[in-house]
Amino acid sequence: xxxxxxxxxxxxxxxxxxxxxxxxxxxxxxxxxxxxxxxxxxxxxxxxxxxxxxxxxxxxxxxxxxxxxxxxxxxxxxxxxxxxxxxxxxxxxxxxxxxxxxxxx
Length: 105
Prior knowledge:
Helices cover 24% and strands 29% of the residues. By secondary structure, the chain is an alpha+beta fold. The protein has a 5-stranded mixed β-sheet with strand order 1-5-4-3-2. A hairpin with an 8-residue loop joins strand 4 (69-75) and strand 5 (84-90). It is globular. The model has no long low-confidence stretch (mean pLDDT 90).
């Protein structure tokens, strides 16, 4: 699946939308849209969800401006090829993830 590749190209081109849930989660964890967008180039795929009902998406591990780990779910709406949608972003709970935040416990 090319969800990360497609999303990354859209993000770098500025073809992005942030969902209402995405905005809420950003605010809750003290994250800015700017740092999420700025961290896409160093992102790693943690999980892919090609059959997600709203369209293919992927959970990415990114870093915030201070270098701390954050999880970001990017997707592309079902039936469309654009825009990249920031579905949610949050600071992963260390009790639910391994020390690298790449595998669920």
